[in-house]
Each structure stands twice: as C-alpha cells, then as structure tokens.
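User: Hey, quick favor. My workstation is busy. Could you predict this chain's structure for me?
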Amino acid sequence: MERWMRRLSRLEIVLIFLVIIAGSVVRMTGSGMGCPDWPKCFGYMIPPTERSTLEWQANRSFQKDNIIIVNEALYQAKKSFTSGTTYQPENWEKYTRHDYAIFNAKHTWIEYINRLLGALSGLPMLALVVLSIFYFKRDRRLLLLSGAGLFMLGFEAWLGKLVVDGNLIPGSITIHMIGALMIVSLLLVLNGLLSQKNWKTLYYTPRFKNLLIVALVFTLVQIVLGTQVREQVDSFTKMGLARSSWMENLDVTFYIHRSFSLAILALNVWLWHQNRKQQYGFWQLNAIMLLLGVEILIGIILAYFDLPAWTQPTHLLLGALLFALQLQALVQYSFAPKKRVIPVE
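Assistant: No problem, here it is.
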C-alpha cells in the first residue's frame, strides 16, 4: 500500500504542475472569464462551442441555471422549462455577480480545460486521504499531510469561484500560486515520509543546510515578485495598452524581480559547487542549475522582447519547478540518513 501512496503522491504533484501550466495559459490568452459562472460554464456541465447556444430560441428546452446573452447581458434560467414562441422575461433573472457578457469559444474551452484539470487533481488526493486512514495508527502524519492537501485543493477551487465572481480580482495570481506551492510542499513531505527507507546517506555541513533553506526562501520571494509583475501585465491588457509599451509602464517591482535573480543565481551556484566538491549527495542541485540557466534566458527574452506571450507560462512553470527541487533537497535532508562532515578545503 505504501508503494501505491508514493505513486499517488507523485501523480498528484504532476497534476498540480499541469494545473499551474493551464492557469498560466488561461492568463496568457486572457481566458479567465471564458466561463462567467462557477462551477458550471454558462450554466452547462459541458460548455457551448457556438454563440447560438447562448441565444434565446423558441420551442427549446432550457435547464435551470442555463445562461443566455440578451442585449449584451447575462440572464440565467430560474427553472427548467421549454420556451414558447415568444421570449418570456419572467423565466429569467439577470446574472448580477459581474457584467462580463462576452462569449469566445476559444477562451471558454481553455478555461474549461483548466477547471477539468483542477477537478481531476482532486481524485488522487482524495485517494491518498482514504489510504492514509489505514496508516493512522502507524503514522498520523500521513493523514495530516494528505488531509491538508485536500483542504488546500478545496481552498483553491473556492478562490477560483471568487475570482470568476469578481471578474478576476486583483492579487488572484499570487494567492493561487502560493496555494499551489503549498500543495506541492505537502506532497513532497508526504512522499519523503513514504520514501525515507530508500534514501542513501547524505553528507552535510550546517552552513550548507542553512543556505539551502535561504535559497528556497529566495525562490519563493522571487515567485511572488514575478506574479506581482504578471498582475501588472493583466492590468495593462485591460487598459488596452499595446504590448510594446508594457515594459516602460512596469513599476519598481519588475526591476527588483530582475535584479534579485542575480542573488539567486550566485547562491545556487555556490551550493552546486560545494555539493560537487564535497560530494554531499544532493542530486537536485544539478537539475537546479539547468533550470536556472533556462529561467534566466527566458527572463532576458521577457525583458528585451516585449514580454512574448509564450514565455510567461514557461517562466512561471520553471520557477515552480525550481522551488519544488529545492524543497525536495530539504525533504531528502530531513528524512535520509545524515552524516555531518568537515568540508575539504
């Protein structure tokens, strides 16, 4: 059963990263309001593909909560009924949570796929909670971690509803991203508990361990700064600013984000060099250096080529992967056999 729990935790981590990618694509394409209601989409379990579905039609069956667009406003069916030959206003009520009443099939389905991935990610987490119950007497931490993960998934879904109801409320990217990273963190710790018997002895010095923690904190701060920059880009899009003018309108947050990357690079290069020289055994640091190289390259493209759309979700995804690898190194340190050493000069 432990093997299945390890597989489920790893599957859940993959799904969370897919949700992060999907959410980034939603932002990149401006599809956040592709479904104006939640949890359904225009009142349907499977959203429409054509505008005609959202128009009133005579002699047509409408289900409760189905949405139509009338005079550029959303109206929701009060009950299930079959329409007659003329439009009857008493069968409908105006959708008042927001006034966004635009249908774009591409945006609708991008947002819908994002929601499907979010819903799908709940299944392995629920299974982990159920399996953890059987291990409650052996290790209560498994149920605590999986239960917290399931709670955070519910929180993320609830936040998604607030975002839609509020027509993309400010700060939503940052909150969503921190929530996703918290879920990944819980799963990595859970997987560490289940895998601790399989890890080889690690060697370390207190300084190296402490700087690993600092590197993780630096990455988290950098991700928050990056999401704040993304929030500004969203506001420029709403204002109708041309992409070529975005860079000149970014505030000091962008320049802090850009400069802080040098500190992150320097710290991780030192950790990588020490890990290799002293043979501490943290395999994650090689992957971290590769990720940092690609991340900085994409950052340069973002800064000097007017924030190309494709680079934005990639940049965010790599930042999340960097955080996960650094945390994985700390999790391995926490659960693997350890031996403190005197560093070789």
